[in-house]
Write a structure and sequence with these properties.
alpha+beta, three-stranded antiparallel sheet, two-stranded antiparallel sheet, about 25% helix, globular
Length: about 150
């Protein structure tokens, strides 16, 4: 979870999101991959107590674009449903059939490296379900908890 508010309110958890990146210098624009923005003035969300992020729209493969990045792959009709490709990969990874990627990682392009900044909760081992016991809290109670945590 990028922030405490979404930990406390499961209905607002985004299926795919991307943390805000550090802006590149003018002479580096388009040539380098920037990391996450850690500047507390811009990147920290003090209302929700966590990092600012941008929701990312999911995509599905089609005849014209059969290869969709796994970092944005999901069903647009139901963003919380696991895509078939992820179900297959989950089965393969859980049985250690694809462990060769650890020893021989694939070469990544700049675009693929940027895609890795997306956090897709439908991917294997990135689920955001968590506990649902806090769904009964009101927004005022959640705000009170966050305000208390800020004092620690």
């Amino acid at each position: 979870m990028p922030n405490v508010w979404e930990v406390l309110k499961p209905s607002e958890r985004q299926p795919i999101w991307r943390r805000v990146s550090r802006p590149a210098r003018a002479d580096q624009a388009g040539r380098v991959i920037m990391g996450y923005d850690t500047d507390l003035q811009h990147a920290l969300d003090t209302q929700r107590l966590g990092w600012r992020y941008d929701p990312v729209a999911c995509q599905t493969g089609s005849i014209l674009t059969p290869m969709v990045s796994p970092y944005v792959s999901c069903n647009p009709d139901d963003a919380y449903q696991d895509p078939l490709a992820q179900q297959i990969l989950s089965g393969l990874y859980s049985n250690i059939l694809l462990s060769w990627n650890i020893l021989f990682p694939p070469i990544l392009t700049n675009g693929q490296m940027e895609d890795r900044k997306n956090f897709n909760t439908r991917m294997f081992a990135q689920d955001n379900a968590g506990h649902e016991f806090n769904a009964v809290l009101s927004d005022a109670e959640r705000t009170a908890i966050i305000e208390y945590l800020k004092t620690l």
